[in-house]
Sequence to fold (685 residues):
Amino acid sequence: MNDILPSYLRDAWWTPGDAVDATTVHDAATGAVVARVSARGADLAGALEHARTVGQRSLGALTFHQRAMLLKRFALVLTERKDELYELSKHAGSTVRDSLSDVDGGIGVLFAYSSRGRRELPNATVYLDGPVESLSKDGSFLGRHVYTRLPGVAVQINAFNFPMWGALEKFAPAFLAGVPSVVKPATPTAYVAEAWVRILVESGLLPDGVLQLVSGSVPHLFDHLGLGDIVGFTGSASTADGLRRNEGVQSGRVRFTNETDSINASVLGQDAVQGTPEFDAYVRQLMAELTAKAGQKCTAIRRAIVPAEAVDDVVAALRAAIEERVVIGDPHVDSVTMGPVVSRAQRDEVLRQVEVLLDAGGELLIGSTDAPDVVRADGTVGPAPEGAFLSPMLIGFPDPATPAAHRIEAFGPVASILPYRTVAEAADLVARGGGSLVTSVATHDDGFAQEMLGRIGAYNGRVLFLSREDARSSTGHGSPVPHLVHGGPGRAGGGEELGGIRAVLHHMQRTAVQGSPETLTALTGVWHAGAATSVGRHPFRKSLAELRLGDRVSSRSRTVTLDDIETFAQFTGDTFYAHMDEESAAANPFFPGRVAHGYLLVSWAAGLFVDPDPGPVLANYGLEDLRFVTPVSPGDEIRVELTAKQITPRETDDYGEVRWDAVIRNQEDALVASYDVLTLVAKEA
Fold:
């Protein structure tokens, strides 16, 4: 792999004409040359324009569900070849266990967004946000919020520690939103990014223009960005500050979100003394975060905040765990559990920051700044001067308020341990980090947990509470999941990624749309009350292919009697006094006397609107947004109108989902109840 690493631009592989200014990347364990990286001469403006034109056209032709299905196919292709990616990642110091969070983690993001996209988004290109708002007395003028995709390109600048997960957790929501991506990996691990991109390209699944890769520096990229473009950055706070000062970002034309390094904390509860499950879980987690990826994680624990009386116990337990379980060496050796940091330059930087911490009053309690003996590729044990190896290090600070402990990050297998005496002091120490991606709290005391959340929530993007109930099932302090937000305030960047569909919406524009019910129905693909309806053949006799928005059934009326109410009460066991006791019901401010059960009315409504014979309607799978508005007394009449509100074909099945607008009214045309009925309907009769 001594040739210059190619970029993938405008749907073709490209390399510079010469190796001038190329950066040489070395194996983190042996120092052997792995790749040379350069994007000198790359037509970045052309790549961006290709994304805005060809990529936008490709994704614009697909619905959310169709994009989601492609994400699943991408995940399956990468799964088939993940062993190649494991092997390649070893050059960067990653053990196979480390690769589970990067390679498998990235694949997991694709699967997660495929699933959520089909489950939570419509099979359309517009996403509705919130309920419809009536802006006129007669309902002829409405408003609601919608999301439509940005017209530009998503530029994704990633850190070296997660060349696959870090890229795919940005790419997946952008792709699902319908925005093409230009991925810029960090140079030290760009060869891993090139590998997963090449696998997707070779699969033939990528639509034209939706994914491009720049292998090398992009010094003038921001000069070509404009309104409709979005940048997602992961890296150092200092680099993020520089990018944020770009004129396009400052003016608001270019959206910019960033996730930067943070001094994350883990708090041991006052109740979690030695011998408790919480103490043991805390030590296991601290060791895992100290050694996984050799501590090179933006979510790693940098500050262990523990009761003053427990410091010695935690240090002793952590030292014993490291001595028992940690084997430092070349990741190509199966017995190795912790590899080197990504490069000798990174090793030297970590050691420089450790010296700063020690000079500030810290004491090295575990580990050494000397180069450790390691397991070499041939299985022998000894020094490896060409490698970037470090020992796990724990630094103690007698004064927990020492500024350096809360400001300096040694981005490697390094953490500090800080004593506290009160809950307020523990929370104050967390806050001194200036904003973090995550803080974890190990406790079995709900009162302690409640007070901590109230005090530290505003300083964190995520808070994990670790106890005996969830210690085995917990995904871990340092593991963001696609379902929950990843990001944090202050030093952590102030940005937000992941979080389910929230991340998709980051790549879309929310717009307030106003118009008539007819217009809003046409714009959104959802029927709005007041838009045209069609009453003819019963809509339950129509397949998905035949059904249209606004198809309606209007039922006959049915009179509710006291016998009906009492029969329903006895049959169901629901003898609540409002249905059975005239005097007590009349004393209730909401009822004129005995009234019909709400669920009696909903049951009757089904009987009034249903077509009972076998047909395209396969199943009723739920009700949503049920509201009872006007009580129904004995002698009142009810009728129901059922209107096709939203039609969602499933991409992988012979049926789809139909949402029906159901409205129950009484003899005076007053609204009794409203709700949505959800059914599964065959695509063809």
